[in-house]
Known about the structure:
alpha/beta, 6 strands, 3 helices, about 55% helix
Amino acid sequence: KREIEDRIRAGESEKARLREAELQKTIDDMRSKLEEAQRKSEQGSQQLQGEVLELLLEEQLAQAFPLDEIAEVKKGVRGGDAVHSVMTRSGQVAGVLLWEAKRAQRWVGQWPSKLKQDMGEAGAVAGVMVTTTFPADWPERQLFGLYEGVWVTAASAAIPLAAALREGLLEAHKARVASANKGEKMEAVY
């Protein structure tokens, strides 16, 4: 009888250990899923924050430069965030600026080279990165500047920088048109 009781206790003890192990496994799995869900929600939140900066930038550019065309680059499509076609009063394209908005915790070194590559594909004359974080070697309190071949700016200086770049594109366009007309006039004289 004692032997039977010992076997039953051992069997019940084994069943209890298995149930405890199953419960611990379930708890560990749930904890892992919860941590993954938290990571995904934070990532989604960061994407949302980035999109907010992009939309604000596009809106500010459209308000500041009503003659220009500001085209959003759709999500999932390679390229910057907005293509800014600077237009003359007669409706000609004087040049294209490619805008990229970055709202991140820290600067990523590949951003300028990616923007330069995107500029080539978009036919842009200049690329501008509006960012909330700057490179480690960026001068303190500097709101904008040329960095590795692209313009980098804080959001607060984006529109004034856009105005300066836009004016440069319009002047260059005028010079090209005047030069082309000069050639035509010389041909007509001869």
